[in-house]
Amino acid sequence: MTLRSKNIGFYIAIGLLSLVIMMITALNIGVYEFGKSSAYEVFWKHISGNPSLSLSEKYVIWEVRASRIVMAVLIGSMLAVSGTTLQGMFKNPLATGDLIGLTSGATLLAAIAIVLGHTFQDYLPEWIRFSLVSVSAFLGALLSMILVYRISTSGGKTNVVMMLLSGVAITAIGFAITGMLIYISKDDQLRDLTFWNLGSLASATWTKNAILFGVLLISYYVLLPKGKALNAMMLGEKDAQHLGINVEVLKKQIVILTALMVGTCVAFSGTIGFVGLIVPYILRLLFRSDYHFILPLSAICGSILLLFADTLSRTIVAPSELPIGILTAVMGGPVFIAILLKFKNNLR
Amino acid sequence: MIKGYQINYQNQNVSILKGIDIEVGYGEFLAIVGPNGAGKSSLLNVLANEIKTDKKQHILFKDKIITDWKLEVLSKHKAKFSQHNSQDIPLLVKDVVMMGRYPYFHSQPNSEDFKSTENAMTETDIIHLQNRDYNSLSGGEKQRVHLARVLAQLDNDVTHRLLFLDEPLNNLDVKHQYKTLELIKKLTQKKNTTIVVLHDLNLAAHFADKILLMESGKVLSYGSPEEVFTQEMISKAYQFPCTICKHPVNQETMILFG
């Protein structure tokens, strides 16, 4: 089954429409009851600056629900796009931030920054501590990325086993050091670290959303028009070069921008796995591996997937909350196995 | 069209090309022949700007150092058909051929690009396969898909275009071997140049204007097929006995081995 009959704009329009419908639906779902009026009326009152709105209603609709929905949209989108572009660069559908160790690298350095940051916290202003964690997460992702690429790729060819095993190695190192940090950390640090390992969108704020949006704009400006180039990479790097594509520049852009996206996502939401695996997998079933289609569409479908998972995570065990990483892993595990089965004979 | 002097290339301390001089003119069909490991593919890769050699050596493409060309511009002047084509491309055949048009459109291919790919697919006899999965094709059919791709890439108004082909006849049946070489010949008759690595000496003699016979990284002989394909030269290069005779039907030079 392939859908390719229509223009890419048609699918983007459908995707955006469903995303907007989901965002509107999600706004009305939650533990807090707004009494007589619906969540939409409250939201409208807030937008139009109606003075009859109580402070708690205002807080719930804007600072809690709306900001969390926007954060799910931004993070889901970036995780999916980072997975898709990495798969294009490594020429393999198993290359995603979490499987090749970017997420672990980012988590590790973020954890170190949290513990160290707490040691110095009396001397540092809050915004520095805040950005310290983000920058560390980015550096962690970037270092892991460079390490994995160096280990697994030579002469433009990626050894898939080496790629996945270096991911396992980085994850093991990250697990050990994070474990040690948990062992020596104090109570408040422990809470932060646990949050990192499970992943959650509960800490969404508009400041974080603004930063995420900035990262998204920069990354998408460079990466989203690369559909043709990633298709050509399937021919091999040398043949892509003969088609006028500067492969070295392309790879550098992908390395830096995926590390930036994964790092920022980890810094703000912790480890949310498998989004970068599930979304391109489903899109590949519909559009084959045509990156001209799956790259822009993964930006939209990633949002849809994570928004769905997050809304589910805060409703199925309400008033408590299920860590979102559990939900994405439940969906991602079978996809992982499906890819392994399909590539059983080519994974060498 | 393309010139290179004293080309040296080493790979992991093994000297592969040892001081090769080469100059190919406009509208020329050059066949590079020689035994396994003679350095034929390496020479082609160096000329095609794929591997970097010594910094001091320059390959001149249209009298300009090839590394000074912008990649996007260069892709409209030259194309290369590689020996080892990717076996796993999860796309339709026509999408793979369309890659040849990537230098010409930004986001959406226009009608000219579609016409170009259709022509190329008709010429290489794969038009009936255009909606098949590339991965479901046989080895020879995949070869023809990539041939169509490079033909589509060079379908433009540039006056002198250059096509590199590394063993394009691998896996092809007799009919398509001839059809492929005829296509290449047709291209060179329009002032374009092709440099082809071939194994079949008789086909090389039949189609090529010039032959470059290589042996262990050096040029053993260069010239027209009649000049290069002599009994002693071939026996020396391949370390194998051969006889030169006339084709009983068309009276052309024919090389028999054994």
UniProtKB/TrEMBL annotation, chain A:
Membrane topology: Multi-pass membrane protein
Listed transmembrane segments: 12-32, 69-87, 99-121, 127-149, 161-184, 204-224, 254-279, 291-312, 324-343
Keywords from the named record: Cell membrane, Membrane, Transmembrane, Transmembrane helix, Transport
Pfam families: FecCD
Signal peptide boundaries: none
Subcellular locations according to the entry: Cell membrane
Family: Belongs to the binding-protein-dependent transport system permease family. FecCD subfamily.
The protein's name: Iron complex transport system permease protein
Source species: Epilithonimonas pallida
Phylogenetic classification of the source organism: Bacteria, Pseudomonadati, Bacteroidota, Flavobacteriia, Flavobacteriales
